[in-house]
Design a protein that fits this description.
The complex is a heterodimer of chains A (about 120) and B (about 120).
Chain A (H helix, E strand, L loop, with lengths): L2 E4 L3 E5 L4 E3 L1 E4 L5 E7 L6 E6 L5 E3 L5 E5 L4 E6 L8 E8 L9 E2 L3 E6 L1
Parallel strand pairs in A: 2-12
Antiparallel strand pairs in A: 1-4, 3-9, 5-6, 5-10, 7-8, 8-9, 10-11, 10-12
Chain B lengths: L4 E3 L2 E4 L5 E6 L6 E7 L6 E7 L2 E5 L7 E4 L6 E5 L8 E8 L9 E2 L3 E5 L1
Parallel strand pairs in B: 2-11
Antiparallel strand pairs in B: 1-3, 3-8, 4-5, 4-9, 5-6, 7-8, 9-10, 9-11
Classes of the chains: A mainly beta (about 120), B mainly beta (about 120).
């Protein structure tokens, strides 16, 4: 079965410092992996996705993630945090590269950014 | 606004009452999904439609839940005889199934509180 584990429920950083949000996955197949962001009172928005092409994936707002099969990880990073990055981040896996029918979400990581 | 629209945004009801939520997807999207999100958890898949056909239902969707998409456009999710455990955010998403980009577009959700 497919699943994702987000290792931190809360992460706090100062503005201008790097961000690291950790995600490990479990998959019987070659997974498709995503990061979604949820700002307060906003709909979930896709940050980036990995679908078996390049292992380093760049997304919106300066975020990127690296797929590491040996470590079964897909950590999200950003070199310099901005106040507007404060939100809930979800690591997501699907059944395959073209099966978008069912997204399996992690429990989320709440990112706080301090001035 | 041409995004996914959900109504009502908030619903407070007494246990045992019926409630109905509506979702209007992005107009050219033929796939529509319902997810449920409880406090501190990631969204969980409930069901999805391709056009008017309901293709899969999660075991989370008990007999008290019914979803329809009669003309392949908007969808409704009805919960009969609500229970306190039904309190959650109900999320709707849509995608253009033919392009298979892996991106779902989410609405802002309908929050249900059962007293």
């Amino acid at each position: 079965a497919q699943s994702v584990t987000q290792l931190d429920s809360h992460v706090s950083v100062s503005e201008g410092t790097p961000v690291l949000l950790r995600c490990n996955y479990s998959s019987s197949y070659s997974p498709s992996l995503f990061w979604y962001v949820q700002h307060p009172n906003k709909g979930l928005q896709l940050l980036l996705k990995y679908t078996s092409a390049a292992t380093l994936v760049k997304g919106i707002n300066g975020f990127e993630a690296e797929f590491k099969k040996s470590e079964t990880s897909f950590h999200l990073t950003k070199p310099s945090a901005h106040m507007s990055d404060a939100a809930e981040y979800f690591c997501v896996v699907t059944l395959g590269s073209y099966n978008t029918d069912k997204l399996i979400f992690g429990t989320g990581t709440r990112l706080q950014v301090f001035p | 606004d041409t995004g996914v629209s959900q109504n009502p945004r908030h619903k407070i009801t007494k246990r045992g009452q019926n409630v109905t939520f509506r979702c209007d997807p992005i107009s050219e999207h033929n796939r529509l999904y319902w997810y449920r999100q409880t406090l501190g958890q990631g969204p969980e898949f409930l069901t999805y439609f391709q056009n008017e056909a309901q293709l899969e239902k999660s075991r989370l969707l008990s007999d008290r839940f019914s979803a329809e998409r009669p003309k392949g456009s908007f969808s409704t999710l009805e919960i009969q005889r609500t229970e306190q455990g039904d309190s959650a955010m109900y999320l709707c998403a849509s995608s253009h199934g033919l392009t298979n980009t892996g991106e779902l577009f989410f609405g802002e959700g309908s929050r249900l509180t059962v007293l």
